[in-house]
Amino acid sequence: xxAVGGKPRRGIAIFGAGGQLGRALVxxxxxxxxxxxxxxxxxxxxxxxxxxxxVRRFNPGVIVNAAAYTAVDKAESERDAAxxxxxxxxxxxxxxxxxxxxxxxxxxxxYVFDGTKGRPYNEDDPTAPLGVYGETKLRGEEAVRARPxxxxxxxxxxxxxxxxxxxxxxxxxLASQGPMRIVADQYGSPTPAAVLxxxxxxxxxxxxxxxxxxxxxxxxxxxxxxxxxxxxxxRRLGAGHAVSxxxxxxxxxxxxxxxxxxxxxxxxxxxxxxxxxxxxxxLADLFEARP
Length: 291
Description:
alpha/beta; single chain; two-stranded antiparallel sheet; about 20% strand; Rossmann fold; globular; about 290 residues
């Protein structure tokens, strides 16, 4: 039995365990009790029957959904695929959680906002996604919150890791090739997958977690542009190559992105005492932990 929320509970089932966040969650949640790891080959979260069968088979006390369609630009032309994983699957998992009497932890994104506020967004600010990715993620979090279950929806931002396809690994690759040009007029809060996973563990261990279920912003403190983030990565790599600043207009993409999607995470601190580190410190810790 897992000690979650101060009470003995059944184990934890992590869906989407093969992705960058899923891998971090597998490491971070170890020791809370039996952890069932479910990658895409084990369960397609877009298959309602498969989701219910997996939950019935393992009967977890907590379901953690790290599965997501994250190809922001491809989502514009692969709308059905994005909707199936980001919008429909969370509802299947929420229904399965209700049937099992389990908690559900689900992750959403800063891209549910249009970036025009000019100040950090809180959980009560109006949403207005600019693209299919943000739109489908918003539909997914709404599906979870509509079910009468103990659910935690964590909106995060600019997630990255030391492996896989993300901004950090892209900059590392480009830094080995020479100077690079990076967008400097989009602002957010880079957040390592491991930091978000540890915040998830802290949430599940909180003795009054069930009393504070709901929507939270969970991203590293502070803000920077993609250009500023790239500069700090290159500095820590010691690559020595120039990182030139360009505008969004200089780098057209299929999907529109918010110009300023920094998240106000004060609710997470006030209700659950969880504070994520400044983005610079989190990046430094990641580099210092490298083997």
